[in-house]
Write a structure and sequence with these properties.
L-2-Hydroxyisocaproate Dehydrogenase, Chain A, domain 2, 14 strands, alpha/beta, binds ligand NAX, Rossmann fold, 329 residues
């Protein structure tokens, strides 16, 4: 029997948490032979902690053989203690009339605190995946607080966008999802993000040739993927939760599976013309469990370069809004 992995999840009683925890405990994220201890962290709010009790009871009631223990806490020092993976889902939602800069600052405070605590108490091999929005910038803020853990341990989730792009290409071409490959996401997890259809293939052939509708690829396709979150809110009255949880399962699973190539928000290092110090989505190859290298060889045409410049501009602007927070590190 393997040693149980400690998986810390913030926002555990939220919408995404409710779809996520059961998938993790069933083995979907780390495999059917990997026991786990879930360390569930909520905001210090009575209602949230009470809801967390209910979620925990349901986890018990699933009788998952892999689930070896649960920690329920509103104290990050307890919740991140010894954690091998820290899944940062919890964040404050954008309220009515709230400016983006205010959201960035409010959430920035959460990620400063969590970055510091993770660096102090998590396991030596700790990895961090950020989902709470604005995910790329929150990830950069958390990473900036770390002195022990290197920046490449901090990743932001853009996998939902990759899955959305793949599904749209399969639908348009009438092919199976498994026939669609290599549609990677560049930049911010926001409507400016760029799903690079130029490198995608469908049944082994360039997707652009199979679809044969460049206006659709450059227009409706990019727009549908970029604004999918808003479309789901408009239809459901709530933001995407099950698909976000599923994407996080994919994100972590693929980061634990050497050889996999997938879209991850990482410190750009200047690849593809991004500012070197922002966290940008790009294709990475998992080298060994939890480690990755950026794939830097995809050629970008003028359309792609324009899209990347736009999403980079937004990331740089977000960073400027939280510049004072980064200096606290
Ligand atoms: P919910 O509002 O349902 O749940 C968030 C939970 O986080 C709440 O239970 C809240 O009490 C908790 N929380 C707040 N501050 C906390 C703190 N300091 N420590 C621990 N817990 C805290 O939101 P949900 O729908 O679950 O979404 C969570 C986050 O994911 C949001 O920021 C959302 O914008 C973001 N998303 C990111 C996506 C991505 O692809 N990167 C897609 C889905 C989603 O929109």
């Amino acid at each position: 029997m393997k040693t149980p992995l400690r998986v810390a999840v913030t926002g555990a009683a939220g919408q995404i948490g409710y779809s996520l925890l059961f998938r993790i405990a069933s083995g979907a994220m780390f495999g059917a032979d990997q026991p786990l201890i879930l360390q569930l962290i909520e905001a210090p709010i009575e209602k949230a902690m009470q809801a967390l009790q209910g979620v925990s009871m349901e986890l018990d009631d699933c009788a998952f053989p892999l689930l070896k223990g649960q920690v329920l806490t509103d104290d990050p020092n307890v919740g991140f203690k010894g954690a091998n993976w820290c899944l940062l889902v919890g964040a404050k939602p954008r309220g009515p009339g709230m400016e983006r800069a205010d959201l960035l600052k409010d959430n920035g405070k959460i990620f400063i605190a969590q970055g510091k605590v993770i660096d102090a108490v998590a396991a030596d091999d700790a990895r961090v995946a950020v989902v709470g929005n604005p995910a790329n910038t929150n990830c950069m803020i958390a990473a900036s607080q770390a002195k022990r853990l290197p920046a490449d341990r901090f990743t932001a989730m853009v996998r939902l966008d990759q899955n959305r792009a793949q599904a749209q290409l399969a639908k348009k071409s009438g092919k199976e999802l498994t026939d669609v490959k290599d549609c990677f996401i560049y930049g911010n997890h926001s409507p400016t993000m760029f799903p690079a259809f130029q490198h995608a293939t469908i049944s082994g052939k360039p997707a652009a040739g199979v679809i044969n509708d460049n206006a659709w690829l450059q227009g409706a396709f990019c727009e549908t993927v970029g604004k999918r979150g808003a479309a789901i809110i408009a239809a459901r009255g709530l933001s995407s939760a099950a698909s976000a949880a599923n994407a996080l399962v994919d994100h972590v699973h693929d980061l634990m599976t050497p050889g996999t190539i997938h879209s991850v928000g990482v410190k750009s290092g200047g690849n593809y013309g991004f500012d070197p110090n922002v966290w940008a989505g790009m294709p990475v190859r998992t080298t060994k469990p939890g480690s990755w290298e950026a794939i830097t060889t995809y050629a970008m045409d003028d359309f792609a370069k324009t899209k990347i410049a736009a999403t980079n501009k937004e990331l740089v602007e977000e960073r400027a809004m939280v510049a004072d927070m980064l200096k606290q590190g």
